[in-house]
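#dry-run=false #mode=assembly
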Amino acid sequence: MKTKWTIILLAGLAITAQARIKMVALPERGHTDIRLDNPSATLIEEERVLTLQQGLNQVDFSWKGVSIDSDSIRLTVLGHPDDVTLLNVSYPPNEAALVWEINSKAAVEEKVRISYLLSNIDRLITYKMVADKEETKVDLKSFLVLRNFSGEDFANARVLLDYGEAFERGIQHEETKQLLFLKAGAVPIEKTWTFDAAVKPWDPEKVSGNVGIPVSYKIKNAQESGLGKFALNGGKARVFQDDGSGSTIMLGEDRPALVPIGEKMEVYIGDSRDITVTQKKMTDTRINIRRNNKNQIVLYDTDELITAKIENFKDKPAKLTLIQHIPGQWDMEKCNMEYKLEDASTLKFEIELPPNGKKDFEMHYHRRNIRP
Amino acid sequence: MKRMGMMMIAVALCGAAQAKVDLVTVPTRATVQLTIYNSADMTLVRESRALTLKEGDNKLQFSWANTLIDPTSLEMLPKLNADKIDIQDLVYPPRVKNLGLWNVNSRISGKSPVEISYLTSGLSWRAFYMGTLTPDEKKLRLEGYVRVTNNSGEDYENAQTRLIVGQVHILDQIAQLAQREHPYGSPVSIRMANLEAAPANRPELMKAKRAMVAGAVAMDMAYEAAPKEIKKEGLSEYFLYTIEGTETIPTGWSKRLPSFDTDGIPVVNLYKFEEERYGQQVRRFLSFKNDENHELGDTPIPGGSMKVYRSTGEDSHLSYEGRSSFKYIPVDEKVELDLGSVQNVIVEPKLMKFATDKYKFNRGNISGWNEIRDFKVEVRNTRAVPVKIEIKRNLGTAYWDLDKSGDHGTFEKDDADTVKFTVELQPESKKEFTYQLTTYHGENQER
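#status=ok
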C-alpha cells in the first residue's frame, strides 16, 4: 500500500497525556536527493519549508507504510541557522513519528533539510561486455538498476552514486529502472585458463563428464583500459562475443566483486574442454625415517613425484595457470617448469601451450619432518 | 487459456508536457535468430524490428506474458543512426508484470530498425549419434544428429537457428529469472514469488497447434530436396553450429536435423579389464580418434548418446551392439565408447603362489617383511575379430617390484601403485602371462 507521509505543525506547546491535536500545514516536499553512495543503506535528503512562529514551535514528523530508521532522522536548518534552533526531539508512544521542538527568534518561512535512512530502496550494478572475435578486447557497458520497494514514490529526485555524475530521475514505489551509466570501448582483456589440482579431478578419463578448465577474462580497472576513474562495483557481468557475422553469442556470466582502481576484474565465463590436464602421482614413499628406541617411527620425509600431461587441442595458443599444493614443510628436488609461490603451500605455474601442443609437467619434491 | 505473443507498441509522446498519446503498433519482428545452448537452459534471441520513431521523447513498450524471458537480459540497440537515438532507460513499471518500457530520445523521425535481444529458457538441443560397424568391425559409419526442442511458450517462425556446444558458466537459471515477481528481485526480504505454470505444461495449447503444424511439415518436405547443412565454427571455447536457412519450430515441438555422416572411420575393438573399476568382467570399448586419419577432425564432436549397430553383411541387416554415451571430444582427442560388459572376451588373473620373506625383528616383534605373489593371467578372445585388451592391476602400495614373463604385451607403470598390460589377440585365440609381485612392508620399505 502506498502512503504519503507528512509534516504537521503543532500549535500547542505542551505534549500531555491527552490526545495530541495536530494542526495541519502541509509543506510541499522540495528538492530531494537519493544518495546511493553507500551500498548497505540509502540516504534520502529532502527539503521542506516550515512556517515557524516566534518562540517555541513543535513540528510533528510522521510516516506510514515506509520503513525509516528513526534514529537516523536529522534536521538541518538551511535558511537562518543562527535564528532557528532545534531544541530537542521526542518520540510519541506507538507512532511512527517524532516531534521536533524548534525555537525561532522570529516568525519565518524556514527552509530545512530532512535526512533519513530509508529501507528497501537500493541499486544494483550490472555489466555487459561484448568481446571481439579474437578475444583481445571488450566493449564494456555498465548499467545502474534502481529498485524502489520502499513504499514511497519519488516524482523526481537527484540520484547520487559514489562516483560519476548525479542525474535526475523519478521512481515510483515497486518500480525498477535500468540506466546505462558507463560505456568503455575496446577495453583490453587477458584470457586465462586455470587448472587447480586441489579442485579439479586428476584423471579426466575417470570422470563421467568433461572436466573443463575454467576460463576467465581479466580487465584492469586502469586508465590504459579506458577505465580507472572509480572503483567498479560488484555485480552480475554477462559476457558476449562478436561472432564475426553481425551477431553475438553469449560466453557466460559471473559476479565479480568490487574492483578498486588499479586492480583486475576477473570474470569466469565458462569451461574449456579443448585443454586437458591428466595428473598422476608416480611416486609416494617415505624416506629418512627416524625411530625412537622402541623402533616406532617418530619422524619421516617423503619422496613424491607428480606428473601431468597438459594437452591443448585448440588451434590457438593458450596460457594455462596450473596451481599445485604441497602442504607443510617441503623442498623441491626437481621441477621441469618455473613456478611462483602464492603462499607457503601453493605453487603457481604459468604454462604457455602452443596450438595443438602438449607439455609434460614433472614435479619431484620431498615433504619434510612429518610426524606420524 | 489463450497464449499471448510478444507485442511491441510504440508510444510516441508529442512533446513532453502534452498528454496526447499516439499508440503505434509496430510490425512483427522482421527476422529472428536463436542461439540455443545445451549446457544450460538458455537461448539468446535476437530479433530485428522496424520502429517508427518521432523526434523527441518516445516510449516503447515491450511485453512478454506467458513466455520464459529473463527480463534483465532485454536490450535494444538501434541499427541505424545510433548516435542520434539515445536510449535513456528501461523501466519496469510498478504492479505490471512482464512489461518493459524504453524511454528513447530521438533526434530523427521515421523508420528506425532496431535489434532487440534477450535470453529465454525453454529451447534446448542435444546431440545423438548412430554408429554402424562393418561386419569385420574395422570400420565405423558415424551419423550425428541434433534434436532441437521448443518449450519456450513462443512460436519462433522462420528463425535462423544456431546451436552452441560448450560449457557456459551461468549464475542463475533463466527459467527462474523469468518467473521472478520483480525483474531484478526486491530488496524487501523474500516474498514468495507468484509462480506461473510454465507454458510447457499446457496441453490444450499444444493440441491446438498440432493440426496447423502437421500441414506445415508436409509442405516443407515437399520442396526440400536435400537435408540441411550445418555450418560449424569455433568461437572462444565454444563451437557454433549454424543450421542452413531458417527453421520454424512451434512451441511444444522438436525437430531432428542431421549434423554429419562419416563413413569408413577405422576403429579399434578395445577391451578393458580393471577389477576395482569394472569387476570381474571385461568391458568393451570402441576406440578411434577425432582426427584426419579417421576421416574426422574438422570440429569437436559434442557429447551425446550413441547407439551402435553392426552390419551383418547380409541384405543390409543390422544387429544391435549396444549403447554408449560419450563426452565432448576435442579435435585430435581419442574417443573411447563404452559399450558395457561382455562375456566373449575373458581376462582371468589367478594368484598361483603366495609367500612372505625377509623378516626383520625388533624386541621380538616383526618390524619388516616382504610379500611375494605369483600371478598368472589368462586372456581369451572368443570373438571372430581381433581385439586389443588393456589390463590394469592395482597393487595397493607404492612399495613394490614386478617381474614379468610370457605374452604380456606392452607393460607400463600407470601411477605409483597401478600397472597396465596391453595385449593384442587374434580372432579366437588366447594368451597367458605371469608376473611376480613383491611388496615391501614395515622397515623393508626403507630400501
